[in-house]
Amino acid sequence: MINPGNTVVDIGAGAGDFTQYFLQQVGALGLVVAIETHPGAYALLKDRFKDHPNVLVSNAIPHFSGKVQSWQNMWCECQLPCDKPTERRIDFVRINVVGSELKILQRLKDLIPHIKNILIDNYVPETPLPELLSCVHGMSCTILPTGQLLCTQ
């Protein structure tokens, strides 16, 4: 599902264990955007990946109003260097922020058509996430045996 050269966004990256795994999968030509809002975890994450030019670490989840015109918006919204590639499809998004999944998806709503796969860790079946992603965005969703929700385009 994640291949060399892919773009992966890890929301709720923590100390970066999954970010490290994603980095190994995407290789030198890929890109990993790791987002962590907890100050202590963000500091660890930033330090851990400071020598990896294809890992962008941010402490803010970007908010898009209106149509997303390019990745340039995301870099600037995340307070990341704005000279990064601007036309990348997002191959995989992992969301690991328990209880805030809907809020995050709302903030990313204009990007969802450009995302191939979304994995929601710690999925709570009582939430309308599969319906939102399938009805509104045309994604196909499956609850995995691990309790995660995987939605694909």
Structural notes for this entry:
By secondary structure, the chain is of the alpha/beta class. The protein has a single domain, classed as Vaccinia Virus protein VP39 (Rossmann fold). The chain is 27% helix and 20% strand. It is built from 5 helices and 7 strands. It has helices at residues 17-26, 39-48, 71-77, 101-107, 129-136, and strands at residues 7-11, 31-35, 55-58, 92-95, 117-120, 140-143, 149-152. The radius of gyration is 15 Å and the shape is globular.
Binned strand content: 15-25%
Low-confidence stretches: 63-86
Whole-angstrom Rg: 15 Å
CATH class: Alpha Beta
Shape: globular
DSSP helical segment count = 5
Cα end-to-end separation: 12 Å
Coarse structural class? alpha/beta
Going by CATH, the architecture would be: 3-Layer(aba) Sandwich
What is this structure, in a nutshell?
The protein is an alpha/beta fold and 153 residues long.
SSE topology sketch:
Layout: E1 7-11, H1 17-26, E2 31-35, H2 39-48, E3 55-58, H3 71-77, E4 92-95, H4 101-107, E5 117-120, H5 129-136, E6 140-143, E7 149-152
Parallel strand pairs: 1-2, 1-4, 2-3, 4-5
Antiparallel strand pairs: 5-7, 6-7
Features:
7-stranded mixed β-sheet, alpha/beta, 20% strand, Rossmann fold
